[in-house]
Write a structure and sequence with these properties.
By secondary structure, the chain is an alpha/beta fold. It has 13 helices and nine strands. Helix 7 packs across helix 8 and helix 9 crosses helix 12. The protein is elongated, with a radius of gyration of 21 Å. Strand 3, helix 4 and strand 4 form a beta-alpha-beta unit.
Length: 306
């Protein structure tokens, strides 16, 4: 590592001033990036997918700590030269892909690189962090193409991911993350650790695939039920679900859910039962039009933050 220039020099040489429009906040403390790199366990012989490497601070730590191969997906073309220098230093261990992470097909990308499963480790751009997480959590194949997700989020978002039923932070992200994964906050990171410093602190979340709390739950149905339920989280669940089905009472009875509860008081298994009940109701309605249901869902006012 002694032959690599300091990260601040890399940023200056490549004019890599962080762009707010890309949600960029760089981490330059290599002791901190080492902690992030190994938070989910040792990296020896592990393949890693990194999203948003920027000037390559975390990328250096991934490679230094023994990752067999790192696939770095970067949308900002200004960062490519800096990352290619790092790729040349670690011959054959770093592949840089210029792409939008929201649009890539991760299993296909890994297959092209001769990789079956990867560990995702990333300082995610703030503006797409939640969308990327939901994309990875709702992958149809399970177990998924990743062995774990080690991700940096704004602290408020991290709290929602790991929140328990009954808490104020419990919501859509909590249900989708904990439906078939475990999620834990590894440690917090102060705003001053980033360049430039954001207005909020961050937290590192480690998410590991697990057996679903209920099997045979349709992903789209669960997403719809959860979105509608937390769209009006202060109302009773019967009122919220009426926007998804005029027979919300029957839906709740089938799922064995008290209609007077609010969404924040329904546990993960309860939402899975609701999703199953919604599928049964939908499939037994010959005149139902899925397009109509989607239009109704899109028109639902949502108070749930991504």
């Amino acid at each position: 590592m002694a032959e690599l220039p300091p990260l601040r020099d890399v940023i200056a040489q490549n004019d890599l001033r962080a762009k707010k429009s890309l949600g960029q906040n760089f981490l330059l403390d290599l002791n901190l990036t080492d902690r992030i790199a190994t938070a989910a366990g040792p990296l020896d012989g592990v393949d890693v997918l990194e999203v948003g490497p920027g000037p390559g601070g975390l990328t250096r730590s991934l490679l230094k700590n023994g990752a067999r191969k790192v696939i770095a997906v970067e949308r900002d073309p200004r960062c490519l030269d800096a990352l290619q220098d790092l790729s040349a230093y670690y011959q054959g261990k770093l592949t840089v892909i210029e792409a939008d992470a929201l649009r890539i097909d991760e299993p296909a990308l890994l297959y092209e690189q001769g990789i079956d499963s990867a560990r995702v480790i990333a300082n995610l751009p703030y503006n797409i962090g939640s969308k990327l997480l939901v994309k990875w959590l709702t992958t149809p194949q399970w177990p998924p193409w990743y062995s774990s997700l080690t991700l940096l989020f704004q602290k408020e978002v991290a709290e929602r991911i790991v929140a328990a039923p009954g808490s104020k932070a419990y919501g859509r992200l909590s249900v989708m993350a904990q439906w078939r994964c475990t999620a834990d906050v590894a440690f917090d990171i102060p705003a001053r650790a980033f360049t430039p410093s954001p207005k909020v602190n961050s937290s590192l979340v480690v998410i590991r695939p697990a057996r679903p709390c209920l099997e045979n739950v349709e992903i789209d149905a669960l997403e719809k039920v959860v979105a509608v339920s937390f769209g009006q989280r202060r109302k009773m669940i019967k009122r919220s679900l009426s926007q998804l089905s005029p027979n919300a009472g029957i839906l709740l009875s089938d799922a064995d859910i008290d209609p007077s509860l609010r969404a924040e008081n329904i546990d993960i298994e309860g939402f899975c039962r609701l999703a199953r009940a919604y599928c049964r109701m939908r499939d037994n309605m010959p005149d139902s039009d899925p397009r109509s249901a989607r239009r109704k869902l899109r028109s639902t006012p949502s108070g749930e933050q991504e």
